[in-house]
Amino acid sequence: MYKNIFKRLFDFILSLSGFIIILPVFLIVLIGLYFANQGKPFFIQPRPGKNTVIFKIIKFKTMNDKKDSDGNLLSDAERLTPIGKFVRKTSLDEIPQLINVIKGDMSLIGPRPLLTQYVSLYSDFQNRRHEVKPGITGWAQVNGRNAISWDKKFELDVWYVDNISFLLDVKILFKTIQKVVKSEGINAVDAATIEPFNGK
C-alpha cells in the first residue's frame, strides 16, 4: 500500500513544502553559481529512472567547463569551483532535484540515479535497483555514499528495493540530515567524485 500509493503522496507533499521553505537558499546558490559558471548554474543530464525509463535530472552545477590545450575537459578535481565545493559538501547541489520529485521523475528516497551508460553493464541483480523510482537520497547514501565500493552500493540499493516501508524512509530521511550536517561520505577516498563503474 505504502510503496504503490502513499509513497508518491509523501514525496509530493514533502518535496513541495521543502522547496517553498528553502526557496531563499535556492536563489542565493543560483546567483552564486550563475557567476561562478559563466551563466550556467544548472547541471542537466539524462538518467535512468524506474524501469530504466530516461528522464532529465536537475542539479546545481558544481564544476566549470575548463579544458586543456587539446580541448579535453580537465579532471573533476580541477574543475570543482570553490563555491561548487561548498555546495557539494553541504549537499545543496541536490536541491533542484526536488523539482524532479514534484514532477514524479524521482522519489525523495530511493537508489540514486546513475549514468545512462552504466545500464548495459549491470548484472540482473544490479539492475533490480531500477524496480523503484530513483531518489535524492537512499539507503546507500546514509551508509557511505561515495565512500563505499560499487558492489556495496548495489547491495544496499537492492536491499532497499526489497524492504521499502514508511518507517524505513523516515529513518533514511533523518540519517540523511545527520550525514549532511557532518558532511560524511561526500567523496571517495582521494577523489572529488567516485570512480566510474566499469561493470565488474
Summed up, what is this model?
With 200 residues, the chain is mainly alpha-helical.
Give a structural overview.
- With 200 residues, this protein is mainly alpha-helical.
- The chain has one domain (2-182).
- The chain is built from eight helices and four strands.
- It has helices at residues 2-21, 23-36, 76-79, 82-89, 97-103, 124-127, 150-163, 166-182, and strands spanning 42-48, 54-60, 107-109, 135-137.
- It has a two-stranded antiparallel sheet with strand order 1-2. It has a two-stranded parallel sheet with strand order 3-4.
- Strand 3 (107-109), helix 6 (124-127) and strand 4 form a beta-alpha-beta unit.
- It is globular.
- Mean pLDDT is 90; it is low at 186-192.
Topology:
Elements: H1 2-21, H2 23-36, E1 42-48, E2 54-60, H3 76-79, H4 82-89, H5 97-103, E3 107-109, H6 124-127, E4 135-137, H7 150-163, H8 166-182
